[in-house]
UniProtKB/TrEMBL annotation:
InterPro entries assigned: HAMP_dom (IPR003660), HATPase_C_sf (IPR036890), HATPase_dom (IPR003594), His_kinase_dom (IPR005467), HisK_dim/P_dom (IPR003661), HisK_dim/P_sf (IPR036097), HssS/ArlS-like (IPR050398), Sig_transdc_His_kin-like_C (IPR004358)
Keywords: ATP-binding, Cell membrane, Kinase, Membrane, Nucleotide-binding, Phosphoprotein, Transferase, Transmembrane, Transmembrane helix, Two-component regulatory system
Domain called HAMP: residue spans: 178-231
A single GO molecular function term of this UniProt record: phosphorelay sensor kinase activity
Entry's Gene Ontology cellular component terms: plasma membrane
PANTHER family reported in the protein's UniProt record: SENSOR HISTIDINE KINASE CPXA
Highest rank taxon of the organism: Bacteria
Organism: Tissierella creatinophila DSM 6911
Protein name as it appears in the record: histidine kinase
Enzyme Commission code(s) on record: 2.7.13.3
Membrane-spanning segments: 7-30, 153-176
Domain Histidine kinase span(s) in chain numbering: 239-451
Pfam families, sorted: HATPase_c (PF02518), HisKA (PF00512)
Amino acid sequence: MKLSKQMILSFVSLVIVSILIISSVSNIMINRSFKFYLTEEREDKFKRIYKEINTSYIDNDFKLDSMELKHLSLSNDIVITIKDLNGKTKYSSKRMGMGRMYGNMHNNSMQNNDNFIEKSYTLYNDNNPIAYLLIGYVDNAYLTDSANLFKNALFRSFIISGFITILIGLIISIILSKRLTKPLIMIKNTANEIKEGNLNASSNIDTDIKEIIELSNSINFLGKTLKNQEDIRKRYALDISHELRTPLTTLQTHLEAIIDGVWDPTKEHLEILMSETRRLKILIDNLKDSFTQEEYKVNLNKSTFNISTVVKDTIIAFLPIYNSKNYNIKYDIEDNIEVFMDKDKIKQIINNLLSNGVRYLGENGEVFIELKRSQTNLVLTIKDNGIGIKKENLPFIFDRFFRVDSSRNKETGGTGLGLSIVESIVKAHNGEINVESLENEFTKFTIVFPL
């Protein structure tokens, strides 16, 4: 069943049950209150009749006008009887002459009723009892035509109110269900579009319900994330294709030239082929490493070594490369820092960062390397004064194949895998790597290893 139908059905059912409960409780309480009110009114009426008869009886020398009693009896739908102190009947509305047949029929019908009750009152003269007044009535006589009319009108009002309430509840439930289900349907359709491959789909809903807004934002975020991943995958494919095509094309061209006799298989030409072969091997190895980041967690060959010496030796190995381009390397290495890490992987980190540095330095290029130890951490900092990185590119520099220079110039562009591999090694050692950069001013990598 659709959510909208379930909501409408549930809401209307709740309204109906609520109306039934309220109506039942209200009807019981009103009947009790109405009965109590009418009973009290009847008692007040009997007291007034008693006082009237007691006064008249004394004022008329202990005599009563039978016609007045008859009228009083018929007008109040009661039977009036007066007995002396010995219990002998002196007056009774059941025996009075005028209208005898009607009176007898009325009184007999009342007395034959199972709920006929007589209430006794004592007539006094100066606080001395002089006779007894008996007022007979049917117990449910308070339910007069007017009372029944009122109760029926009240019952009808409950029914009409119930129908109106159910109708209003139905309208409200339809409005609420549409308000809730319409954005949910839009979100569902967006999710289906994403499932079908339309990663640009997004749900733009108009609602003030916080949970639905959060759900819509989550679906939109999911779509954008999948779109970004799809774009990265396509870029990976293009970059892999390009990076593999370049050395392969060089190899193919040189080999065809040698086969066709255009070039002689001299040492110089074979060195070119070997250089491209080595480049291709490095590319494939980097590619393999970049897609197997998890292996750094299981294949680290850790040992205890002096990282200060390793960093210095690696820097010294790069000095000729930097000096040939008139670049400088400066460093501040704290001596004799013993660590338990993968020595080769640490060398690879420094190699990759220094290789990146030499590509992006300009005139008066300089790289500064610092290694310091605190009580709990080992901090390696590599900062250069090169071309820097644009602010919008900073979040992506550790992505596989991402390259700041999209032109893929051999002089500046690498494989786009170096920093991805560096990040993997750092994380495998439970470390953190951060980058700061300002375009045309500097780039600074900070690596923190726990000791």
